[in-house]
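Retro notes - structure team

What went well: the batch runner handled both jobs without manual restarts.
What didn't: labels got mixed up in the shared folder, which is why I'm recording both outputs here explicitly, each with its sequence directly above its tokens.

Job 1
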Amino acid sequence: MNEKTGWGVQRASRMRWAICSFALGTLAVWAAMPSSAQRRMKTRKPRERTPAHMPVPDATMPERWLLLDEAGWTILKPSADSQILYVSSSEGDDATAQVHRAGDAAVSDNPMKPAGAIRPFKSIDAAMAKARDKQPDWVLLKRGDTWEGQGISARAGRSKTEPSVVGA
């Protein structure tokens, strides 16, 4: 036993066991590796990005990706069958809320800036319950409003080019 620290062999082994129990998955894998694999992992340098791995400026993107504007932001457009669900804690009412379609006059070409009167949901939970899984539905939260005790469970979109969107 070490007189200065009070740590003996038993305490050190208990400490290793406690640490091991917190990160059991990682440490169990590490302990099961052959020592040569452990040495390689310890000495491996992080991979540096070389010019060959970096994107080329002004390169055209593959068609499977969403379009970007001049500033690099993704341009989102709803699909023809997208449902647009507006949510406002200050103006919404879950009982009278309406699910809008992408082509509705109130929605306009840009759902982020509705052109007409919309009927928003009050709670995020009620709007998310109406959003369909594996469909390109949009749930749009009113900027400046706040919600407490509510979460957002992301839904899968139809495809990479027709995503489900949660935004403000």
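Job 2
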Amino acid sequence: MTHTDNAKPFPNVTPLGVRQKTTPRTTASTPEIFANVLQKTVHEKEMPYCARTIPRGGELRHKLMAQAESSPGEASFLAKHYAYNSLTGEGVDLSDYPVIRYCATGKIVTPESSAYFQKIGGCMQKERTALYEEECLKGTPA
């Protein structure tokens, strides 16, 4: 069935009887209006919602530093969680699955490279924790 400008309402039979229903009509559009709507929609789809709402990189650092400067309790909380709970997982690219590569280098992830990464990450975590605990023993404020 095609849409025509002189389409008549069709009957809608319900338990309450016959009702008339009309389909909504769009206003006459021009190519410019369509292009504007399309461009706005594409722009919104390019950037995921989380990317528009969650601070990233330098923005996040400034926000965390402002929080830490405003409250000693918040500074202590952030320092402790950074020392003990930092996110140090392997950055991998799954776009060519089942071939898994490291995001930074493009090299294929192997059991050996993964073990090396875990070893180095563990050493870094131990050093970070030791530094935090040493500063706490000295009485350094967060």
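One thing worth noting from job 2: The helical segments are 31-46, 49-53, 57-70, 72-84, 111-138.
We'll revisit the folder naming next retro.
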